[in-house]
Amino acid sequence: MRARKSPSARRFASVRRLLAILLLGMVACAGSTERSMEVTATAYNSLPQQTNDDPRLAAWGDILRPGTKSIAVSRDLLELGLGRGVRVKIEGLEGEYVVLDKMARRWTKKIDIYMGTDVAAARRWGKKKVRITWKEKSP
Asked: How would DSSP label each residue in the chain?
């Protein structure tokens, strides 16, 4: 038969568990900084009339498929840590979007949200100012 722990021993064990969980969370977040900024957001589709060559081919060679939650970013955002594969939260949209494409050099502080072949959804989205959030890896 096991001996019962005193109330103070049980509290101490609970505190130790809580500290371990907090420490694991800190280790998981180590090396990353959360960044946030306001950008102009538009939408695009993978259709021949909206691109030069293969409408499914993104700038880094990724193949875009309807249903993929991805964005293209203006080149200035690349310098802020929004490179290929970075996960981004977009104000007003659920889930995370992955940076898989980049835009022409003429754009600044802008993202383009991929909406597959749904032109109506892209038109409904239009052009908005939104806040985006992402985690930037420390060097």
From this structure: -PPPPPHHHHHHHHHHHHHHHHHHHHHHHTTEEEEEEEEEEEEE---GGGSSS-TTB-TTSPBP-TT--EEEE-HHHHTTT--TT-EEEETTS-SEEEEEEE--TT--SEEEEE-TT-HHHHHHH-SEEEEEEEEEEP-
